[in-house]
């Protein structure tokens, strides 16, 4: 199996993926909902306005206590009130242990005790993947692009059994594609995409089922072969079409010869019919203006066409010229 050449930009993007993924997971775990933010803002405003009212009455110390209490209340609503979308499930850990699945809809978390480790999307997901410069069974390097359709059916397993289920299913699909390509010849790949799709779906689904993920379908989008091999296959197909055309032409000649053989049996004992057929052929040839008719000498002698053709020629010479 040949490896793709080093690409700095591609390598850099892959190195940046884990950092970005961790940052996204951090904000995803917070998942601050719009209702919680609205309530927290109202409490903050009420705390500031109330502090300005009670400060002259109760003093700065009690006012400070009041403001701190209101801020804690706002923070409680901000981080405890969660809203999950219809397609989402929240995996809740309490003191590091799995506590349960929450959502969709409104639910509460205990501050400092509960933590949402993952928000699992239960919709059908689409993951494109490819295999570059992969050798087939007959040692032909090919590039194959495919699309994977999958869905999470068990949010608990997807969150707890694998660190990054999205990345894991992408790599599982890519390795399965390389494995399938190594077991098939180029001709089978080009004409057997449906079988490849079924085999890929079976292999990937076996690997992802322990993670709570089910593969619905796999579709091969494109198969790219080297340009030189593509030209050679085109020439081979053209040569095959020419061979078939020559075979068909030979079969046609054989059928024509057989028809002539059958026709000769009808004329062998009927010279009058043979003469009439010869006259008809000569007439059909002379109908065309400026036509040149070539008659074999054997036919002229056997069918007495010499005198007939001379008479026709004399008649044509004596005919008045046509005016355009």
CATH C-level name of the largest domain: Alpha Beta
SSE order, one letter for each helix or strand: HHHEEEEEEEHHHHEHHHH
Tally the structural domains: 3
What is the CA–CA distance across the termini? 78 Å
Poorly predicted residue ranges: 1-20
Radius of gyration, taken over Cα atoms and rounded to an integer in Å: 44 Å
Overall, the morphology is rod-shaped
Overall average residue pLDDT: 78
Q: Strand sequence of the main sheet, in spatial order?
A: 3-2-5
Primary descriptors:
324 residues, alpha+beta, Tetrahydropterin Synthase, Chain A, 3 domains, three-stranded antiparallel sheet, 11 helices, disordered N terminus
Describe the SSE topology.
Blueprint: H1 8-30, H2 34-58, H3 60-80, E1 81-84, E2 88-94, E3 97-102, E4 105-108, E5 114-121, E6 125-135, E7 141-152, H4 155-160, H5 165-182, H6 186-191, H7 193-208, E8 213-224, H8 227-267, H9 271-287, H10 297-303, H11 305-318
Antiparallel strand pairs: 1-4, 2-3, 2-5, 6-7, 7-8
Helix pairs in contact: 2-3, 5-7
């Amino acid at each position: 199996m040949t490896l793709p050449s080093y690409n700095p930009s591609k390598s850099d993007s892959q190195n940046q993926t884990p950092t970005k993924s961790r940052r996204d997971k951090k904000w995803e775990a917070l998942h601050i909902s719009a209702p919680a933010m609205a309530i927290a803002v109202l409490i903050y405003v009420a705390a500031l306005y109330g502090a300005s009212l009670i400060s002259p009455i109760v003093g700065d110390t009690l006012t400070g206590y009041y403001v701190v209490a209101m801020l804690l209340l706002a923070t409680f609503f901000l981080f405890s009130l969660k809203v999950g979308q219809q397609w989402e499930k929240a995996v809740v850990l309490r003191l590091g242990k799995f506590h349960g699945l929450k959502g969709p809809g409104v639910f509460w978390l205990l501050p400092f005790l509960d933590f949402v480790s993952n928000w699992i999307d239960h919709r059908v997901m689409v993951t494109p993947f490819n295999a570059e410069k992969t050798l087939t069974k007959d040692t032909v390097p090919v590039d194959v692009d495919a699309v994977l359709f999958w869905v999470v059916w068990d949010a608990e397993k997807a969150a707890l059994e694998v660190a990054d289920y999205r990345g894991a299913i992408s790599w599982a699909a890519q390795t399965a594609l390389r494995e399938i390509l190594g077991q098939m010849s180029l001709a089978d790949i080009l004409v057997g995409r449906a079988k490849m799709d079924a085999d890929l779906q079976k292999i990937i689904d076996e690997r992802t089922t322990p993670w709570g993920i089910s593969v619905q379908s796999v579709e091969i989008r494109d198969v790219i072969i080297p340009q030189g091999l593509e030209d050679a296959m085109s020439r081979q197909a053209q040569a095959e079409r020419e061979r078939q055309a020559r075979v068909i032409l030979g079969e046609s000649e054989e059928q024509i010869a057989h028809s002539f053989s059958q026709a000769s049996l009808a004329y062998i004992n009927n010279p009058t019919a043979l003469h009439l057929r010869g006259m008809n052929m000569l007439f059909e040839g002379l109908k065309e203006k400026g036509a040149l008719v070539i008659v074999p000498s054997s036919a002229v002698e056997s069918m007495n066409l010499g005198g007939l053709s001379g008479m026709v020629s004399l008649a044509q010479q004596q005919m008045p010229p046509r005016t355009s």
